[in-house]
Amino acid sequence: MAEQETNESLLNFTTATEDGGKRIDAFLSEKIENWSRSRLQKLVEEGDILVNQAQVKSSYKIREGDEIEVELTELPVETFEPEDIPLNIVYEDEHLAIINKASGMVVHPGAGISSGTLANAVAFHFYKNSEELRIKNYELRNNRVGIVHRLDKDTSGLIVIAKSEEIHEKLNEQFRERTVYKSYIALVHGEIEENKGEIEAPIAREKHNRTKMSIRAHGRYALSHWKVKKRFEKFTLVAVEIKTGRTHQIRVHLASINHPVVGDETYNAGRDKTVKDANVRKAIQNLNRFFLHAEKLSFTHPVTKEWMAFTAPLPIELENFLELI
After folding, report:
1. Which residue in the list 66, 152, 154, 272 is annotated as catalytic?
2. Which end of the chain is more exposed for a tag (fewer CB within 10 A), N or C?
């Protein structure tokens, strides 16, 4: 029988003989209460699950004696209530919806956060009927409610919501196969000389700061394509198409080429505070977010097979900042 040790969000397992041959995601879904297999797969993809101190794929078949370390980066809450929070619904049909998420909104409930999230709002707007809520109780308990992918709290822009488990899985498959088109607008520090380029660098969670990602040789493969949209004095506006969906990917990749995202205190090494123009420096502080916006999202509709393409304009606070500089 597998042995387990725990200290809140960090779990450690040592596998037994009878566990041999099981997929890592299937094994952990049996061991960790309230965590669905698909959510565990995302932890695997993001490097939050290690086997013998190495990253693996969800299809990894475990062996007797494997040492498995699991970092539960978003602790599930047992229950959370649907809340009547305004949503900017860009598109909706009986199968899915596209939301333009505002900056400052957390996507999923987690440790210390059980209200005010996108999941709370989605639960209210799309599952108002009590019978629907009863049927969807499993998804509600597991913070899913059809949310297929995620955006950082301070990133605004487009996110897709599935209205059934079947649609959720079909959209998930498109994300896994990298057939979904995702493009972001970012304002970065410094003047980029080239017109376009790509950043291909693996990303993993830092060992000593688990809320922060970094480029590491043994991280998960990550690829970003960028092109310059407009140049300013001391800043550059870029469009970034991500081919993979690693946590903090754009922010980490742009920082790695010495052009970190404006307002991103986690990765820009204090660049915001070194801006010489006092008005611009104050405006960055007043933004209270980083300059990153999920502008474009395209995919194949899981039912109609139609290619769907959506665009969300820059929020007014970002437009105003561009006017200032």
Report:
1. 152
2. N
